[in-house]
Automatic annotation (TrEMBL):
It comes from Chitinibacter mangrovi. The keyword Membrane applies. GO terms for molecular function: ribosome binding. Residues 71-100 form the DUF883 domain. It holds the Pfam family DUF883_C. This is DUF883 family protein. The chain crosses the membrane at residues 80-98. Keywords: Membrane, Transmembrane, Transmembrane helix. InterPro entries: DUF883_C, YqjD/ElaB.
C-alpha cells in the first residue's frame, strides 16, 4: 500500500512541477495584477510539491529503518548464514571488478 501511495505522490509532484513550469512561462509574459496572481499560484504549487516530496522522504526513511531492523534481526538470529551471504556477495563483487 505504501508503494502505491509513493507512486501517487510522485505522479502528483510531477504534475505540480509541470503546472508550475507552465505558470512561470505565463508569468514571464504577464504584467501588473495578472503577474501577481500567477506568482501566487506558482508559490502555492511549489509549496505543495515540497510537501509531497517531504512526505516521500519520510516514507523512504521509514522503509529504510524497517529494512535495517529486519536485517539486524536476521543477522542476530542467523549469524553464520549472514557470514556466508556476505562472503558470496563479496566474491561476486570481486569477480565483477576483476572482469573490468
Amino acid at each position: 500500500m505504501s508503494e502505491k501511495l509513493d507512486s501517487v505522490l510522485i505522479d502528483e509532484t510531477k504534475d505540480a512541477l509541470k503546472e508550475t513550469a507552465q505558470l512561470i512561462e505565463a508569468a514571464a509574459n504577464a504584467q501588473g495584477e495578472e503577474a501577481k496572481v500567477l506568482y501566487a499560484k506558482i508559490a502555492d504549487r511549489l509549496r505543495g510539491a515540497k510537501h509531497r516530496l517531504l512526505e516521500l522522504e519520510g516514507n523512504a526513511l521509514e522503509k529504510a529503518k524497517v529494512a535495517a531492523k529486519q536485517t539486524d534481526e536476521y543477522v542476530h538470529n542467523h549469524p553464520w548464514q549472514a557470514v556466508g551471504i556476505g562472503a558470496a556477495v563479496g566474491l561476486l563483487v570481486g569477480f565483477l571488478v576483476a572482469r573490468r
